Amino acid sequence: MAGTRSGHRTDLSGLAAVALLPLLAAAIIPGVLPGGAAGVDVLFVLSGFLVTSVLVSEWTRAGRITLLTCYARYARRLLPAAALVMAATGPLILTCLPRSSWPDAGWDLLTGGLAVLNWRRAAQDAAVPTVPDAAAGVLAHYWTLGVAGQVLLLWPPLLAGAAAWAFHRRHHDPRRAPLLVAGLLTAGSLAWAVGASGAPAVFGTHTRLWELTLGGGLALVALRPVGLPRSVAAVLGWGGLAAVTATVFLHRPESAGLAALPPALGTAAIIVAATARTGPSGAGPAGTPTTGAGPVRILATRPLRAVGRHCYPLYLWYWPLLVAAHARFGEVPVVAGLGVLGAAALLAVITHRYVEAPVRARVRGWSPAETLRTAALLPAAAVIGGLLLQLGVWPPRQPHPQPVAGTAPAAPTPSPAPAPGAAALGRSPAESPAGRPVARVRSITPEPVDAGRDLPHVYRHNCFSTGPDAPARACVYGDRGSRFTVALAGDDQAANWVPALQAVAQAQGWRLITYLREDCPFLDVAVAGPGGGRLDACARWYANVRTELTRTERPQLLLTTSRRYPLTSGGKILSGDAAHKAFVAGMRRTWSGLVAARVATVVLRDTPAPGVDVAACVSANPTRLTRCATPRRTALDASAGAAQAEAVRTLTAVPLIDLNSAICPASRCAPVIGGVLVYRDTRHLTATYARTLAPRLASALERIRGETAP
Predict the structure, then answer these.
(1) pLDDT tens-digit profile of 115-144?
(2) The domain 421-708: what is its CATH number?
């Protein structure tokens, strides 16, 4: 993070430590600090303050801001550590991460070196990385450097221009024009952030700018510090620290708008308390730290100063080391996570002492142009490294051609000599040795590196509803002229069952029609969106599909399922027992309403959710597959299966099909069964394994049809 070390401001070094420690804790103990990512907001405001303080110092000393000198100074401070960590991630990627993750890692390396990784995350519709696994990316935390780097290019010329204008106009207060620029940028960016949503709101430079310019404005104010009574400064400082601490412990939606205000304003309050003139009535030397007033004395303690002094290299090192540990060894216990953080701290000290300081001393005599020419080698090296990682998996597998929109998707072509998969379990999966985790197997289908492409045909055929209007988009498979229609409605978990249903429909001569939307359940529930509000698109899609099923299509059988979702009520995200009850009530309401509308409904029990990227783990541990096995109880508890079973208990007309004994038959879920990789990621079945469940699904459906036949 730009400029998080303050040099002579020991109290603000401590504030950098307060910002970083929640990020570290949240990474090794998931869920312990739901708002741990608020540390990023603190670092952004603090970076803006420290960077602008240096610019203001040059302005007051030399009467101007020299841009080349400014950029060269940034390069000397920020690039040595960033370049070292990026260089070290290459061996980590090659030795610890599965080959399937190399292309993404290559793009992260390339965009990280160019300081635009935040825009890559926005384009991916990604979430703020909190769980350090291969899926998150070994350089995922470099998105913050992208934001800070782009602001550092923009802010100095704006500040220099405003300062020059104020000088030529001979204002009695030369801060007025720069403060006006900082205020306009802060207000405009914050307004944009409040109105934005999704990943661009989280990662966009335009929605994060306000946090850095807020800190910059405080640095301009500190040029002539305000006078505050010691008691007022104390209240302000403690209030700011309380706001930051409370945000760390509370759940907050991913947003750079209103949700980021408490930690950002709390940081601003601490900075004001630390930079104000204090005394019984506000007297005191300008800019004197308010020793004893508020949290300043605590922030200036030796342990926090030590962490703050190494904050930047520690921030760079901790994430790739944790990702490598997760990818290499699977789940990392808390004690092991502390060991990894200890290694990161040691590397941070070494980086600070033997890389950052010597490099800065060596290039201090260089001209700004020489420094910047040398600094340009980092993005060039990052581009080369990223492209080499892409070549490591070249040539890519060619996907099946996608049919023209509106045409009937082609029937799946059966694979020659398929691996048995679930068929290897026989009639008693729980007693079958084939369902137990083993260290190695002779062969795996699909290859773990290609598991991400082993998708149901609905992905290639563009069968998912998209957009805010949420139309009831349908795809038809099987015998289009059949008089017996089976419908499948649900989210991406429901799409798991398409390969098996295709095989059943083809064998039985049925017509299969799908209604799918990613991240939206086919349920009458209020799915929570950013900020705790209801996702209107999900509600709209549910209504559109229900109308299609009950009035137009009227299938002979409707199959449905979904994963668990955060629900909202009154603008607040439900949790605990209230969330469970609302979910169960929504399922009962939905399914009983469908039965009342004469749509025969069958629930497919949600599949176990391992919670680890099974394909990536298997790719990284081909001779230690037991490392990729998840406890059955853990995987079942993470799914919606228990809530579904509770919901149908009082709905005698709604049967539940539970095939989980053929997906996770043992006490630990085996990653490979019958030579077939079971999961392609953290929760979705591979299409190959789902297809091997077809005989069991056919038997269950035949039994239900026999029980409901007149």
Answers:
(1) 999 999 888 767 777 778 766 789 999 999
(2) 3.40.50.1110
